[in-house]
Amino acid sequence: MALRAAIIPVTPFEQNCALLWDDVTMEGVVVDPGGDVPRILDVLKKQGIALKRILITHGHMDHAGGADELREVTGAPVEGPHLADKMLLDNLSKQAAAYGLPPARDRTPDRWLEEGEVVQIGAESFAVLHCPGHAPGHVVFVNEALRLAIVGDVLFRGSIGRTDFPYGDHAALIAAIHEKLLPLGDDMQFICGHGPGSDFGTERRQNPFLADEA
């Protein structure tokens, strides 16, 4: 497999900023650069990776707060999330201020993403799934051949994304997990927005938030 991945923890929320790159072409993407952009740039430089795009799963500041700064420095376009998260991206600066975090720049992506579209990571194509609930415009990136999904804050090892925001929707989140993610197969591994990853089979069997629905 030519595609490689590394996790760069960013922000006080220890958000998993994911770096994925083709180790033949050394072209890569950064997923969810929530902050600490100098740290991200340092890893890119040390690995010798040419950044081709910046992907955003959803509009929370710990996932998108550094996107505009990273775009400005590298020239890489920002893609995602779904348009339904525009209200969050338009208020990244307010989100950061509310949590006492360093200033974040409001950002309109260069490309909004819809379910059914694909994004390129090196030579690999990742399908876009719209999985609302934690955030209205949350998207997930899936490559079935590699058995890899990047799920943001939809699903965690032993947990699921918060839905206690005014725009949260628990039923929609559970539906997205059961109707869009779990059918991809038990052996599908995932990188999530916080904490260690897992696979869909383990979560289907053991995740307490999914047990009643299994």
Strands, helices and their partners?
Elements: E1 3-10, E2 15-22, E3 27-31, H1 37-47, E4 50-55, H2 61-64, H3 67-74, E5 78-79, H4 86-89, H5 92-98, E6 118-121, E7 124-130, E8 139-143, E9 148-152, E10 155-156, E11 159-160, H6 170-181, E12 189-192, E13 198-199, H7 200-206, H8 208-211
Parallel strand pairs: 3-4, 4-5, 9-12
Antiparallel strand pairs: 1-2, 2-3, 6-7, 7-8, 8-9, 10-11, 12-13
CATH class: Alpha Beta
Q: Uncertain regions: pLDDT < 50 for 5+ in a row? A: none
Range of helix content: 25-40%
CATH topology: Metallo-beta-lactamase, Chain A
Instruction: Please compute the radius of gyration using only Cα atoms.
Output: 16 Å
Overall pLDDT, averaged?
Answer: 95
Report on this structure.
The chain has 214 residues and is an alpha+beta fold. The protein has 8 helices and 13 strands. The longest helix is centred in the C-terminal third of the chain and has 12 residues. The radius of gyration is 16 Å and the shape is globular. The mean pLDDT is 95.
Quickly list its features.
single chain, 214 residues, alpha+beta, Metallo-beta-lactamase, Chain A, 8 helices, globular
Summarize the structure.
This protein is 27% helix and 28% strand.
